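Record type: monomer structure entry
Structure origin: computed from sequence
Chain ID: A
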Amino acid sequence: MQHRQRGMTFLGIVVLVIVVGAWVYSAIRLTPKYLEYMRVAATLEKVRDEHNSDPGVSEIMLRRAVERHFDIEMVEIITSRDIEIRREGGTFFMRAAYSDTVPLAGNLSFLVEFDKTVEVAAR
């Protein structure tokens, strides 16, 4: 009767641990950047909700509101001056587009690019 061995070899376990470890380490390094992007996106959406359907809204009012929320949320990667605000008819478009690098190991790093646009109806 032939006996078949089951399981992984030591080399297979080491390779699996290295691959999974690299993914986990990358996720740990990238998580703060994505959390900061979520704060930026939430800020733009809060400003939209505050000023939506306000006929007296202006670019300066939107920029000040963004700056105030950035101070509250402690957003430091961009400032209110980095937010592109343009008006098309009775609608404002606020866009936060930026990139950031996340060092991984040695001279290897990730480049992450974020882009969020919200529409503020000023009718």
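Annotation 1: The mean pLDDT is 92.
Annotation 2: The chain has two helices and three strands.
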